[in-house]
Structures are given as C-alpha cells and as structure tokens.
Amino acid sequence: MLCLAHKIARMHIHILGICGTFMGGLAALARESGHTVTGCDAGVYPPMSDQLSALGIELIEGFGLEQLRLKPDLFVVGNVVSRQKNPAGQAQYPLMEAILDLGLPYTSGPQWLSEHILHTAENPFHVLAIAGTHGKTTTSSMLAWILEFANRAPGYLIGGVPMNFEASARLPKANPPNASKPENPQRPLFVIEADEYDTAFFDKRSKFVHYRPKTCVLNNLEFDHADIFENLQAIEKQFHHLIRTVPQSGQVIFNAHEESLKRVLSMGLWSESVSFALNTATPVPDWTLSGPPESFDVIHKGSPVGHLDWSVQGVHNQMNALACIAAAHHVGVAADLSIKALTEFQNVRRRMELKAQVVLKGFDLQTPVMVYDDFAHHPTAIKTTLEGLKRQVGDKSRVLCVFEPRSNTMKLGSMKALLPQSLSSADLSFCYTSGLDWDAQEALSALGEKAFCSAELNELVAKVVSHARPSDHIICMSNGGFGGIHQKLTHALKAKA
C-alpha cells in the first residue's frame, strides 16, 4: 500500500522545537507528504533526533540567527519557543525574534498540521481525536492498532512510541483492502493524541482545537498544567471549544464517570453523544464492561458483544479499551474485531515497560527483582498505575515506587497534598527532589517510614537498592529521562547480586 500524500504545493518548512514528540511527529508527516523539512532544537537528542535523521531531515542545534539563511517558505513554531530573555537580557530564542522583526511567515505546529495534512480541500481526513488528562498516548495507540488490525490502514500522530508500530507518526495508507466502493467513499482515517496544552506563545488555545475531529473521545478530565491553567474550569472551557468543532454527523464519546465532562457537555452539544463507563455508572452507559481488568466482557446497550483476555494492567486501561472499541465502532469496525485486535496490543514504550530482571545473590531465577519504566506523573496516573501493579503481583511481592515530580504542575507543588494517597499502594516510595521548591519529605510525611527523599540521584539509587529484596517490583515514574535511573538501578542491583 502506498502512503496517502496530499496533492498540494510542496514547501520548505523549518520547525522550531523539532525534537518534541508532537513536533517530531509532525516533521515526519510533512516529510512523508513530500515537503522539505529542516528543524532546530536545544540539545538535539535521541530517539527523536535519530528518527528524524533517518528521514533525511537536517537538524540544527540551538535557535541561532544563521538559520535565516535557509530561507524556508514557512517557519513552524513549537510551544517550547517563547519570548523569554536570559539573565543578561538577551532573547532566549533569537531566531524567533528575527522572524518577528523581519515579518517572515510563521505558524504553529497544530495549525500547520490541520491546514496541510488533516483538512486539505483535496483530501480531508476523518480525524479520531483522543483527549483527556490521562491515557491519551495509550488510548491513541490502542485505537490506531484496532484500525490497523481491521485493515483500515489509518494514519496517526501519537506522543509516544506504540510498540505495535515502527514509528510515532505516519500518513494513512492508500486503498486499504476493505475500502468502500467508489459510490460510497470513506475518508481516510487519522488517529491523533489531542493535547489540551497550549498551542504556541502566540496562540493560547489548546492544541486540540485545531484538529476538528469527527470522532472525539473524552477519556477523563482533571486539573493539570498549573503553569497555564488557573483552575479546572479553565480547562473545561478549552474542552468545550473542542466539542464546538465536532460536526453534526460526528460523535462525542465520553467517560460517564467524570462529572467534569458532564459539565463540559452541558455547555452545549451539537453531535451525537455516546457514553462509556464501568457497570457501576448510572444511568446505564452505551458501552460498559463486566469483570476484572485482565479478563472482562464488553457490553453494548445491555448486550454482551465479546470477551477480552489480555496482558494490559489496570482498571484505567479497561476504560481506555472501552473508549477505543466505541470509537472504532463509529467508523464501522465491529466490537468483536476490536476485541480480537486488543488481544495483540503490545502497549506503548514507557507504559509499565519492563527494563530489567536481576537475580539477587543466594536466590534462584524464580525470584528476580523487576525494574519497570513508566511515564505516569500526575497523582491520579501514579495511583491507578500502582494499584494495577499491586493487583497483579498480589501480597507475595512488594512494589517499590521511585518517582520524579518533574512536570510543571508537580514542580509548582499544587498537587503535593495528593501524593500520599497516590502512593498508598506502594510498599515503599522514593522521591527525587532535585529542582523542587517545596518540601517533599513534609508532603510525604503521612507515609511515615515508607517514604524516602533525596536530591542526589546516586544517593536515591543507593537507598532503593539497599531496601530491595527478591521478587520486588521497582517502578520508576517520570515524564522525563530521570537521569537514566533504570540503568543505574540495574547496574547497582547487579553489583549487589
């Protein structure tokens, strides 16, 4: 199958902030569409730098004025770029200042994506957007895999690395085997992770407002991004801006457990709404389920439509699966086929990804220490992930949580009061406190001797290793690289072994 590239005028775009997951994915889509793509970033780094270099995209370190010599048709600006100045009073992003001074054409990443990829006049896509505070990457990956399994050959842009695919972004494929007959054509499908973070320094709307989905999944909604939103109501307003873009023929698929989403929908709805929830919800949702996370029945309008046995953990992933089954149903994929696809879903890198198994000295191969990597950083995501892991290992093994409050919201300390409850399923918790302006030890005092803090990474690793026992499950949680802690823990555990 060939990639479905648009028949449009080719251009040279230069992307500022190209190594972020969204902008890097956008660059890959632009290159696949036939555009010339160059880009810059501070600290050009893998894996995105490797992925882009393999596509023949020139990467430049920093935001220097010499890049003006490239003379692109358009500068595409990521939301990492700002008008900030350094302590010496100099512009932190001199290239952006020059673009403004010279009146050169520029736009945001989400707007360029919408106008040149998703919604061209020649070949508009049916966009399936996954929005929510938690689970966007996993749910988007699930849905893209379901559509791929069903031979619908979707395009996608995902803020992570889905393990069922080779890359984080691609265009739809032309002429999938079960494409509609010419007299009843279907738009190509495109799955996108719909982020509520702001678009750019010059466009403070949420990114997802640009995507104009026909299938819109609202997974959950809590307060987050305290650096740009004053309160939950401000985020709800942005979610309703998204709802306003869904056409009358579209569907809004929402989590019926979430009062915040009900408030969003009460502001106005112009499309068909479809609800999903656990079977404890009232009124009874359109899509629900019965059974534990690893093995459950899927129920549609009161009737069982299939049974899912899979290896993905947690009630939150049950809900993610239910949302995907409902979204795929909207574009004609039967529930039983979606369920079959999910049995082969391999999850996303950095979502409970097993990094190492280390057998400690004097113990057999049946009792290794397991080391995992996980992206969870919001208190709710931490809580649900730990609960899922504890449910899996039971009382025979301990869960040790090693976490870094790295997101802007967590660094501000606005959610520190929620951390003791979030960590309650862990037998021991270890917090990396470097860069925090609040007292983590005090915030975690409710956990007593179950919590340890350190601003030195090597010291934190030593504390974890000193407490590690055979059969322990050590889960490292951060939305960044965490200083390579997984490798440090693995090496230290092997040294102890």
Secondary-structure content class: alpha/beta
Number of domains: 3
Strand numbers in spatial order across the main sheet: 8-7-9-6-12-13-14
Shape category: globular
Arithmetic mean pLDDT = 87
Subunit organisation of the chains: single chain
CATH architecture of the largest domain: 3-Layer(aba) Sandwich
- Tally of DSSP β-strands: 23
Percent in helix = 25-40%
The name of the CATH superfamily of the largest domain reads Mur-like, catalytic domain
Low-confidence stretches: 179-184
Instruction: Tell me the major beta sheet.
Output: 7 strands, mixed
Return Rg in Å: 23 Å
Using the coordinates shown, work out and report the CATH topology of the largest domain: UDP-N-acetylmuramoyl-L-alanine:D-glutamate ligase
Count helical runs.
15
The N- and C-terminal alpha carbons lie at a distance of 50 Å
Strand content: 15-25%
At the first level of CATH, what is the class of the largest domain? Alpha Beta
Summarize the structure.
It is built from 15 helices and 23 strands. The protein has 497 residues and is an alpha/beta fold.
Features of the shown structure:
3 domains, UDP-N-acetylmuramoyl-L-alanine:D-glutamate ligase, 497 residues, 23 strands, Protein-Tyrosine Phosphatase, Chain A
Describe the structure.
The radius of gyration is 23 Å and the shape is globular. It folds into three domains: about 10-110, NAD(P)-binding Rossmann-like Domain (Rossmann fold, 3-Layer(aba) Sandwich), CATH 3.40.50.720; about 125-340, Mur-like, catalytic domain (UDP-N-acetylmuramoyl-L-alanine:D-glutamate ligase, 3-Layer(aba) Sandwich); about 355-495, Protein-Tyrosine Phosphatase, Chain A, CATH 3.90.190. α6 (about 230-245) links the parallel β12 (about 215-220) and β13. Strands 8-7-9-6-12-13-14 form a seven-stranded mixed beta sheet, with helices on both faces. It has about 500 residues and is of the alpha/beta class. The chain starts with 11 loop residues before the first strand and ends with a helix. It is built from 15 helices and 23 strands. The model is unreliable at about 180-185 (pLDDT under 50). α5 (about 135-150) crosses α9.
